[in-house]
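ARCHIVE CARD
Drawer: 12
Card no.: 0347
Subject: one protein chain, sequence and derived structure
Cross-reference: see card 0346
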Amino acid sequence: MPMDRPKVVIVGAGFGGLSAAQALRRSDADITVIDRQNHHCFQPLLYQVATAALSPADVAWPIRHILRSQRNATVLMAEVTGIDAEKKVLHTGAAGDIPYDYLVLATGAMHSYFGHDAWAPFAPGLKRIEDATRIRRSILIAFERAEIATDRDEQRRLLTFVIVGGGATGVEMAGAIAEVAGQTLAADFRRIDPRSSHIILIEAGPRLLPSFPPELSDYVRTTLTQAGVEVKTDTMVTACDANGVDTNAGRIDAATVIWAAGVTASPAAQWLHAEADRAGRVKINPDLSVPGHPDIHVIGDTAAISDAAGKLVPGIAPAAKQMGHYVGKLIVARMAGRRVDTPFRYMHLGELATIGRRAAVVKFGRLELRGFIGWLFWSLAHIYFLIGLRNRFIVAFTWFWDYLTFQRGARLITNPPREM
């Protein structure tokens, strides 16, 4: 390869980073994709790994395999430690310093405990495969320990599951755990009845799924309640420890607490010394570039930009993919010497959330779906966005089999604690 080809460095191989790389596949540039993991994870289905419906390999793919046919792309597994924007150098640990002509930061978001990071060991969030397998282990071990326990109060604590956050992740987790307890494990134990489990969904705001219309939020609450989930809105968590949570409405003893209440952006704003919003997202220009640095673009969960209606572009997969595609095409145009004045325009494709095995809500423009029809739409949409024919087939077959048999085939406890 000629040594004078433009160097495009993309940090993060999530939806945005991969879309940017693929938009540059025919460009006369050397593309370097850097990620601290060797795989791309389909985050919308992580909750199904956490609740034993799917295995990690069903929702994750090696980055190198995804980009194997893109000859101008190189993949490096390394962690970014900083950026020298003046010298155009990216600092990493394992890969050293990497020069760039164009830099795309698609570094995603992390769990936010709103200043209470000490809660993290007791209330894991759900962003990575490791998070999902940890939560799966916690859920399954709770039932195993309850089977052993002789004290009724301890059994009750072990069979209490608290999910903090009433957004899509919290709703989906609550519905899935209710299904595990009420159907999948119902006949597996002798000393306990998993159907007696207490699943509690806590939301600080007045209703679940606040981005959905109120009637769909009400439907979700009713459906969860019918499934055995106790929904507590207008309730704030004030403390969290190994034995449960404290709220403004009282104490809840629980062996398993799952955090789905908020996220904060990666340290990209700190690396760039750029202005950020309250969630740590970089405030960027209409062309997704960093003010003062037209060669650096920030996309996905790390970016703070508003749509045509003045609303903040949400941190969801379709938005990240649109940003990545836009930036890739923008860089191609600039490398060709063409001026691009068209700003990024986000097209909202809709919102979806599922509640167990046969109900979901969908808001797609003026179209609103709920119940089984909504669940079918949700299933088809997620299968469509999976990478690779194999994964689409496996996930579709797994869902079909689970629907018929009420079983979940990934109920493995890995790395159990020594006291077990």
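Annotation on reverse: The chain has eleven helices and 25 strands. The radius of gyration is 22 Å.
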